[in-house]
Amino acid sequence: MTTSNGLREFLTSRRAQIDPAMVGLPPSPIPRRGRGLRREEVAALAGVSVDYYARLEQGRIGNVSDQVLTAVENALQLDPLEREHLRTLIGSAPTSPQPASPTQRPKVRIGLRTFIDAIDPVPAMLQGPRMDVLAWNRAATVLLADFGAMKPADRNIARWLFLDPTTRTRYPDWESIAAPTVAALRAAYNPGKPDAALEKLVGELSVASEEFARYWADYRLFKHAHGTKRIFHPTVGVMSLNYETLHLPDSGGLFLSAYTADVGSPSQEKLDILMSWGDDPVDAEHATDERSQRD
C-alpha cells in the first residue's frame, strides 16, 4: 500500500463515520451513495475548495499548512491519535522509530526479562508494535496461554486471538478485545515506511478471518493504555482484571502489559488462588534465549 493510498483510505473511512445531521447539515435532496459525509461537505466544513480537498484525499498535495490540517481534522472530528496518524501519513510529523530490521523480532535486553520474571505473581508480558509476544512470566502463562509451547511465529496476540478458538472462551467479551487489537495494528502501520512482517501478518489474518478483515477495513486506531478486561479461567471462573500498559522509550515500539485485580475484590481472591498453583513447566526456549543473551 502506498502512502497516498493509505491517506485516501484513512480520510475516506473517517468521513464515512460522520452523520451529516450531527454536524448541522440539512437533508440532501440527492440520495447518498454511501455512509457519512461527501467530499464537498468535508471541504465546506474545513473551509477549503472541493478540488483542494479532493487532491488532499488522493495524496496529490505537497506541503499542507498546519492551519488547513487543523481545519480538516476538526471537520472530520478526529481524536488526538487520529490527528497524529493523519500527520504521519501526510509526512508533517516525525514517525516513531521502527525496529532496525522489519522482518526480525527485536531483541529483549536481559534486564527487562529479569524484571518481568521478578514481578511474578503479577501476570506480565512484553509485546512489540506488531503484537508479537517477546517475553512473559509464569503468571502470564497461567492466566492467558502457554506462549512457550507455541511456535515463535505463533506468539502474536492478534494471531492468537483470531486463529485460536479457545480465546473466545478465555475472553467473555471477545469482540471488545479483538477490535482494539486490530486498531492498534492499524495505528502501528505507516504506508510510508513499509513493514514486510506487519503486511504479511495482516494479509494472512485477513484471509483466515472475516472478522479481522472487517475490523481492518473499519480503519479504527487504538493505543494500549489501561482499562479492565474480563478473563475466564476454567479453575476459578471469570475475573475482572485491570491492565496497565507501559510504553518503553527508545525501544522501537515495545510495551509491557501487566494485570492486577482490585484489592479485596472477588477477582483478587480468584487470581491469588490461580497464582498459588506453583511453578509451571520450565519454558526451555525462553530460558535458553535469556542465557544466550547473558553470555
What features would you describe in this structure?
With 295 residues, the chain is an alpha+beta fold. The protein folds into two domains: 88 residues, 434 Repressor (Amino-terminal Domain); 185 residues, Beta-Lactamase (2-Layer Sandwich). It is 46% helix and 11% strand. The protein has 14 helices and five strands. It has a five-stranded antiparallel beta sheet with strand order 2-1-5-4-3. β4 and β5 form a beta hairpin. α2 packs across α3. The longest helix has 15 residues. The two termini are 41 Å apart. Pfam families: HTH_31, MLTR_LBD. One of its GO terms (molecular function) is DNA binding. InterPro entries: Cro/C1-type_HTH (IPR001387), Lambda_DNA-bd_dom_sf (IPR010982), MLTR_LBD (IPR041413).
Topology, please?
Elements: H1 3-16, H2 39-46, H3 50-57, H4 66-75, H5 80-90, H6 110-118, E1 124-127, E2 133-136, H7 138-143, H8 157-163, H9 167-170, H10 174-188, H11 196-208, H12 210-218, E3 226-233, E4 237-247, E5 255-260, H13 266-275, H14 284-294
Antiparallel strand pairs: 1-2, 1-5, 3-4, 4-5
Helix pairs in contact: 2-3, 2-4, 8-10, 11-12
Give the class-level CATH name of the largest domain: Alpha Beta
Q: How much helix, percentage-wise, in residues?
A: 40-55%
Mean pLDDT comes to: 86
Kindly provide the radius of gyration, computed on alpha-carbon positions and rounded to a whole number of angstroms: 22 Å
